[in-house]
Specification:
- With about 200 residues, this protein is of the alpha+beta class.
- Helices cover about 55% and strands about 10% of the residues.
- It contains 9 helices and 4 strands.
- The radius of gyration is 17 Å and the shape is globular.
- The two termini are about 25 Å apart.
Length: about 200
Amino acid sequence: MMQLFLNATSPYARVARIAALEKGFGDTLALTWVDPWADDPALLAVNPIGRVPVLVTEAGTPLTESLLIARHLDTLGAGPTLFPTAGSAAVLSLAGVGYGLMEAAFHTVIARKQGGPEADGTTLGRRRARAIDRSLHALDLDRLAPTPSQGGGGTLTIGLLVTAVALDYVAFRLPEIAWPATHPALAAWHESVIGRDSFRRTRFA
């Protein structure tokens, strides 16, 4: 059985877990919950960097980084591919914007945790804030068609998956940004995706 190291608030771990669920590994994947900040020996044994997620294959090979894990699971699992050949550049382009939004939001949270609210006023803090704002505006354009239907139908790609998780993370960790109110079309799209079973089962907590 494969093993996935994760925690409940990591957007990167959530990407990997959703990919696993979408590809049919919900009942054949052992979840190991860890605190990446505590230098958990079990986590460090499979990833010396100490980050989640980590997928340990049935052969005992550890795979790190969420997009690489998703790609591996996509090659093994059942159902529609998350990395379609048709329109692959557009799918990967969207994944890049979504991942960038996730990165900017995640590092904003970490900077506040380590440096307090003053971290937002630093050069890097202001740069992250601008990146989040630009990413939200970019996603409000025509990048999100086609849309998976409400409740779990439709085709989910890695681009749509990453983007939806990133938006959820911003709402969860940076609610003051209030992006659903300022980007209603994007919010409507987001609601259509998070109705999927894989998203409901992996809500941030």
